[in-house]
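Run log, item B.
One chain of 115 residues. Sequence copied directly from the ordering sheet:
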Amino acid sequence: MGELMAPDLDELLVFTARLRCVEAGGNAGLGIEWLDAIETLKSVGCAAQAVITDAVATCIRAERKADSVPRAEWDRGIASQIALARRESPNRGGRHLGFAGVGGRTRRRGRGPPE
């Protein structure tokens, strides 16, 4: 296997389009392998979403701090933006933001995988 590198957005969108065409072709064993691989993909996707959510929130807060926005307003609207991107309710966006923040703090303390 070659060197691993993060995909760019276009590559990810192409992969997503290709994945929509997957089928087992009448082969149960192949179908089981596809299910296993896609389950792994879902797990990796969830982890990537948490990392990206934490990075987006950190970036927005830093921009607001640099713009001298009052500290009390640094988080305003971030959960809604996360929810919109994930096609979920603003309440769920807040939950994702909270989970990502906890995960981000854990990674920074060295308990998670290296970045």
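Observations after the first pass:
- Residues 46-109 form one domain.
- The chain has four helices and no strands.
Flagged for discussion on Thursday.
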